[in-house]
């Protein structure tokens, strides 16, 4: 298959990555610093395998320095800033992301492999929107006046009590590589809004947009030490941050296995932890579904961003009356997706984040094939670097097979046929995960009843993967705990303090 070719970047930032790969240092205490251990990691364009930059490989010593800076910053001007000022700084971050969005989009697209249009028109506006939304919520941080019923106050005195919200302290934010800047914004915006200081550890494959964000955050007026970025591997920089006694809270998005490791690493410090983990989200298609909506919606939910989306609808349960029409329609959508370099404006299906990820995805599909599954379309790695994976539909495989149960994190859809709606709810819920689901039907009453029975943090009706800063997102079961986005996310970064006074 012919892949759409590389197209030269249009911004200075994009051209610099392609033409002059340089070194990207750590951002600690308001300064760019070389890693103490002197180690670097090469970051590649996943489509071509060509180097874009070297990022610093942060060590435990770098994490120590960053956490110390973040602790000092907690008693600095950021914590004392009045809400209107802090809100204005967050809004300025949003303004700067928007002003520099073309450069940021090329950085994100080249580094991560996502189509330029997805970065430019969806994810980066989404990142700016997170900062704008939490800029608004800064004004809503408030406690309550409480009327206690205690009877043991001294004669003639009164008891007055009230609650305050205070920043939780130093936040260690660890984010993955699938949607780097928006997932970073989902942690950093509410943490800043709450008055916390932050040490961010981006994914080693995709750190470039986080480093550009550090520059933006500083220019927006966030004081030094409040926002620090330590790039590096999970096993070194990530593990050091997760176990650091100076960190009050860990906010993590990534795999369930690493989520467990983070809980273990933070246990001795009893750091507060929120986890947005893996998923195996089902789409349930009823016999009366509008296929004109369901086919492109489900195709986008699994093939968009190469299926590297935590909420991707990687399992479909289609009623037998519409199964063939749905699967034919999905296969036609898959066939219409042009694979190519992420900067090519005609590319719809991008390379996966790395050749290793494509290899992992191929492992799932090959195993299903060996176990008797039908490969309706796709099924193979493509391209010079092997990072491309064709959009794939797998049928005729049981619900307990690994490909129906585990997070593949690639453009691979498993389709199951059902007859009985009650039984299909059980099948949809037969998963260790509970991140998201969708229901496709013309009957709002069926959709409403089903959505109450599905074990998932989000249930979409006649759509999938619809994100908004105001809509909280997070998992049931082993998809994690705590929430990103929405008012609920702000709570992750705030403590309650009770004041009780005899007057
Ligand atoms: N649900 C989601 O949003 C994501 C799910 N995944 C799943 O995980 C699979 C493997 O991808 P990985 O890159 O290995 O995911 P990962 O969960 O290990 O990586 C996410 C982040 O955690 C960091 N990390 C890794 N080990 C760590 C540790 N011991 N302590 C602290 N931080 C650590 C990484 O450096 C990265 O910044 C994917 O194929 C996919 O199935 C991966 C990324 C996101
Ligand atoms: O585009 C958005 O607004 C959010 C994207 C989020 C993901 O890709 C994810 O959580 O995996």
TrEMBL record:
Active site: 276
Keyword 4Fe-4S applies: no
Enzyme Commission (EC) number: 1.2.1.39
Key words of the record: Oxidoreductase
InterPro entries noted in UniProt: Ald_DH/histidinol_DH, Ald_DH_C, Ald_DH_CS_CYS, Ald_DH_CS_GLU, Ald_DH_N, Aldehyde_DH_dom
Superkingdom, taxonomy of origin: Bacteria
Every Aldehyde dehydrogenase domain range: 36-499
One MF annotation (Gene Ontology) recorded for this entry: phenylacetaldehyde dehydrogenase (NAD+) activity
Protein name: Phenylacetaldehyde dehydrogenase
């Amino acid at each position: 298959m012919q892949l759409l070719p590389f197209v030269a970047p249009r911004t200075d930032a994009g051209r610099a990555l392609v033409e002059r790969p340089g070194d990207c240092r750590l951002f600690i205490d308001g300064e760019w610093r070389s890693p103490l251990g002197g180690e670097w990691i090469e970051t590649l364009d996943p489509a071509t395998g060509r180097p874009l930059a070297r990022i610093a490989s942060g060590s435990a010593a770098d994490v120590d320095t960053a956490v110390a800076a973040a602790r000092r910053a907690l008693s600095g001007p950021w914590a004392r800033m009045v809400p209107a000022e802090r809100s204005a700084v967050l809004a300025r971050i949003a303004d700067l992301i928007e002003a520099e969005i073309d450069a940021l989009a090329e950085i994100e697209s080249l580094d991560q492999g996502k189509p330029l249009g997805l970065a430019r028109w969806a994810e980066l506006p989404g990142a700016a929107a997170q900062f704008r939304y939490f800029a608004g919520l800064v004004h809503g941080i408030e406690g309550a006046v409480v009327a206690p019923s205690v009877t043991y106050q001294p004669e003639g005195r009164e008891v007055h009590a009230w609650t305050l919200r205070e920043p939780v302290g130093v936040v260690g934010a660890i984010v993955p590589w699938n949607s780097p800047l928006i997932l970073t914004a989902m942690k950093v915006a509410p943490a800043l809004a709450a008055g916390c200081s932050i040490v961010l550890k981006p994914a080693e494959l995709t750190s470039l947009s986080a480093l550009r964000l550090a520059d933006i955050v500083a220019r927006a007026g966030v004081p030094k030490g409040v926002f620090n970025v330590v790039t590096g591997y999970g096993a070194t920089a990530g593990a050091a941050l997760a176990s650091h006694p100076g960190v009050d809270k860990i906010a993590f998005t990534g795999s369930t296995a690493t989520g467990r490791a983070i809980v273990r690493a933070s246990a001795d410090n009893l750091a507060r932890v929120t986890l947005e983990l893996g998923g195996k989200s089902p789409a349930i298609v009823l016999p009366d579904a509008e296929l004109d909506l369901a086919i492109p919606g489900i195709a986008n939910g699994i093939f968009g961003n190469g299926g590297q989306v935590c909420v991707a609808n990687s399992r479909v349960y289609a009623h037998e009356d519409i199964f063939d029409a749905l699967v034919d329609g999905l296969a036609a959508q898959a066939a219409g997706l042009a694979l190519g370099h992420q900067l090519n404006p005609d590319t719809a299906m991008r390379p996966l984040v790395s050749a290793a990820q494509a290899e992992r995805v191929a492992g799932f599909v090959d195993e299903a094939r060996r176990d008797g599954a039908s490969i309706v379309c796709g099924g193979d790695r493509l391209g010079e670097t092997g990072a491309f994976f064709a959009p794939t539909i797998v049928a005729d495989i049981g619900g307990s097979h690994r490909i129906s149960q585990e997070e593949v994190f690639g453009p691979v859809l498993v389709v199951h046929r059902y007859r009985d709606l009650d039984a299909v709810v059980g099948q949809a819920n037969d998963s260790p995960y509970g991140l998201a689901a969708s229901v496709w039907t013309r009957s709002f009453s069926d959709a409403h009843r089903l959505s109450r029975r599905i074990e998932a943090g989000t249930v979409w009706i006649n759509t999938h993967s619809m994100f908004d800063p105001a809509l909280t997102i997070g998992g049931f079961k082993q998809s994690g705990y705590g929430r990103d986005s929405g008012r609920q996310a702000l709570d992750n970064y705030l403590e309650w303090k009770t004041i009780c006074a005899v007057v």
